[in-house]
Specification:
This protein has four helices and seven strands. The protein is an alpha/beta fold. It has one domain: Rossmann fold (3-Layer(aba) Sandwich).
């Protein structure tokens, strides 16, 4: 399954939508993560808040390929995308394991194919380095075997 998360214009053309099995618009109209960790322990992969992100862990857990299109906010994801990603912490378990000679949380849904992040807006050279490292670390933490990050100035 290929999933697109984006925070740009709410309208996508049908040919673009047709490339993805699921399209998630990060519009910021949902509550931020409370940090209760119940999606890790009490209700695995299910958020206790019953808004549109209630099942986000399960949805992202099904993604073989994840594409994120986000505006650059000081070398990181936009607040709306970051909030969505925060609400999907249940992709992993509280247990730990070694991956790549480093300690990481155990994956709840196993390995995935590719993570692609497309960054929109002005990005300084230092921010580009931050982005590259962050996407690399996200790919490892989320279980993606390949990753790429690209930059587009508007």
């Amino acid at each position: 399954m290929t999933i697109l998360i984006y925070d740009q214009d709410t309208t996508l053309s049908d040919p673009i939508k047709g490339k993805y099995d699921r399209v998630i618009y990060a519009d910021g109209r949902y509550a931020p993560c409370q940090g209760c960790f119940k999606c890790w322990t009490k209700n695995p992969a299910t958020c206790v808040m019953t808004d549109s992100l209630h099942e986000m862990c399960r949805i992202l857990g099904q993604a073989d390929d994840l594409v994120i299109v986000t505006e650059n906010w000081y070398g990181g994801y936009s607040p709306a995308v970051k909030n969505l990603l925060d609400r999907s912490i249940g992709l992993s378990t509280p247990m730990s394991t070694y991956r790549g000679k480093q300690m990481h949380h155990t994956l709840r849904y196993g390995k995935h194919d590719s993570l692609r992040v497309h960054v929109i807006g002005d990005v300084s050279d230092r921010e580009k380095e931050t982005w590259k490292l962050m996407v690399q670390r996200n790919a490892i933490n989320w279980g993606y075997s390949a990753y790429e990050v690209s930059f587009k100035t508007i």
